[in-house]
């Protein structure tokens, strides 16, 4: 089975994001927020069949762990109340996708974070998504200010109530920033990669997993700059008298394969143990074009993993399937349930 742990609903019906725009305008003008948009199952089905699902099937991907559009989270745009309503709207839409295509998608939620607001405010929505909607994880924005990094690092106790809920529910968080309101940082080209790299260094500096030994984070986009600079990070940890990274972080931190070229994927697999790598493509997402050097889509990341000749078959199996089941324990339970239901049906 091939599980893509990183897909966003970037092709949602236009009414969805148009409502968010009107909501933010109403907030700014002090006027009444319009009622939530009415979107039909047919609209959802069409925007999935002709986009995400088509690509997924063309590339032989069996299941995508699917979440709301990351750049659309826009935690810096609204206050905690507005973002709570918006998160519920986004998560409900993901739940409808998963209900329409239960074999192809499983949900991960957006959290109603807001700059300067304690992330404990996200726990009710996290619980609703996991316990009522069957979601298996969340996207956690390390910088709800949208590029100004005005909040505390992720090792700070500020985040602990949310981590306690994650551990209690046995769900991981993908560390994922949203759009950037700072023109110095292009959203997908700089802000995303900065977020990944910065959080890894925060985790290296701190000792978060001593307090939360079962907490799991996925650092997407291939781990930002981390695998490429692995020697720097090992050396910094050593200078800081921190434990070896394999003990300090690699029981809790995982990287995805959203690196859009063969040499990058090979470096990732050389440097990071296979048990810490989860297959992902982030389709339909940041980079949608065709690479003129290969004739294939940049984000067709399955080709790069398949193309690593020296990588053992067992390691590819880990990357494509086994690690996702381990990092998202509720995924394994769901797949086994589906399998036993199919067994009963046949
Ligand atoms: Zn993403």
Structural write-up:
This protein is α/β, with parallel strands linked by helices and 346 residues long. The protein has a single domain (3-345), classed as Metal-dependent hydrolases (TIM Barrel), CATH 3.20.20. It is 47% helix and 10% strand. The chain has helices at 14-29, 41-58, 70-73, 80-100, 123-132, 160-169, 187-205, 208-211, 230-239, 245-248, 262-271, 302-306, 313-327, 329-345, and strands at residues 3-9, 63-68, 105-107, 109-110, 138-140, 173-175, 217-219, 253-256, 277-278. It has a six-stranded parallel sheet with strand order 4-5-6-7-8-9. It has a three-stranded parallel sheet with strand order 1-2-3. Helix 5 (123-132) runs parallel beside helix 6 (160-169). It is globular and about 55 Å long. The relative contact order is 0.12. The model has no long low-confidence stretch (mean pLDDT 96).
Number of strands: 9
Overall form: globular
- Biggest sheet strand line-up: 4-5-6-7-8-9
At CATH level 3, the topology is TIM Barrel
The secondary structure category is alpha/beta
Instruction: Specify the CATH architecture.
Output: Alpha-Beta Barrel
* Rg over C-alpha atoms, rounded to the nearest angstrom: 19 Å
First-to-last CA distance: 20 Å
Order of helices and strands: EHHEHHEEHEHEHHEHHEHEHHH
CATH class: Alpha Beta
Helix content: 40-55%
Strand residues, percent: 5-15%
Bound molecules: zinc ion
Sheet with the most strands, sense and barrel status: 6 strands, parallel
Uncertain stretches: none
Offer a quick outline of the entry.
The protein has 346 residues and is of the alpha/beta class. It has helices at residues 14-29, 41-58, 70-73, 80-100, 123-132, 160-169, 187-205, 208-211, 230-239, 245-248, 262-271, 302-306, 313-327, 329-345, and strands at residues 3-9, 63-68, 105-107, 109-110, 138-140, 173-175, 217-219, 253-256, 277-278.
């Amino acid at each position: 089975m091939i599980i893509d742990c990183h897909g966003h609903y970037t092709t949602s019906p236009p009414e969805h994001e148009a409502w968010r725009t009107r909501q933010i305008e109403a907030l700014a003008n002090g006027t009444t927020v319009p009622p939530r948009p009415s979107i039909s199952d047919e609209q959802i089905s069409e925007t999935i069949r002709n986009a995400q699902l088509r690509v997924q099937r063309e590339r032989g991907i069996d299941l995508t762990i699917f979440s709301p559009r990351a750049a659309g989270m826009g935690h810096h745009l609204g206050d905690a109340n507005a973002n709570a309503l918006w998160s519920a709207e986004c998560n409900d839409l993901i739940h409808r996708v998963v209900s329409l295509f239960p074999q192809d998608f499983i949900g991960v939620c957006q959290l109603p974070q807001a700059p300067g607001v304690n992330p404990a405010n996200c726990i009710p929505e996290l619980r609703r998504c996991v316990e009522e909607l069957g979601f298996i994880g969340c996207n956690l924005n390390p910088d709800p200010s949208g590029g100004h990094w005005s909040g505390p690092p992720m090792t700070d106790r500020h985040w602990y109530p949310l981590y306690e809920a994650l551990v209690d529910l046995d769900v991981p968080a993908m560390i994922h920033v949203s759009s950037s309101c700072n023109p110095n940082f292009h959203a997908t080209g700089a802000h995303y990669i900065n977020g990944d790299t910065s959080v890894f260094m925060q985790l290296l500096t701190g000792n978060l997993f001593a307090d939360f030994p079962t907490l799991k984070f996925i650092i997407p986009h291939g781990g930002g700059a981390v695998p490429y600079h692995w020697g720097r990070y090992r050396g910094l940890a050593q200078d800081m008298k921190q434990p070896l990274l394999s003990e300090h972080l690699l029981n809790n931190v995982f990287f995805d394969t959203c690196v859009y070229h063969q040499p990058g994927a090979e470096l990732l697999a050389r440097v990071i143990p296979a048990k810490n790598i989860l297959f992902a493509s982030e389709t339909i997402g940041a980079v949608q074009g065709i690479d003129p050097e290969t004739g294939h889509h940049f984000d067709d990341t399955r080709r790069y993993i398949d193309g690593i000749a020296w990588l053992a078959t067992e390691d590819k199996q880990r990357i494509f399937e086994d690690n996702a089941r381990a990092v998202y324990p509720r995924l394994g339970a769901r797949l086994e349930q589906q399998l036993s239901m199919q067994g009963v049906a046949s």
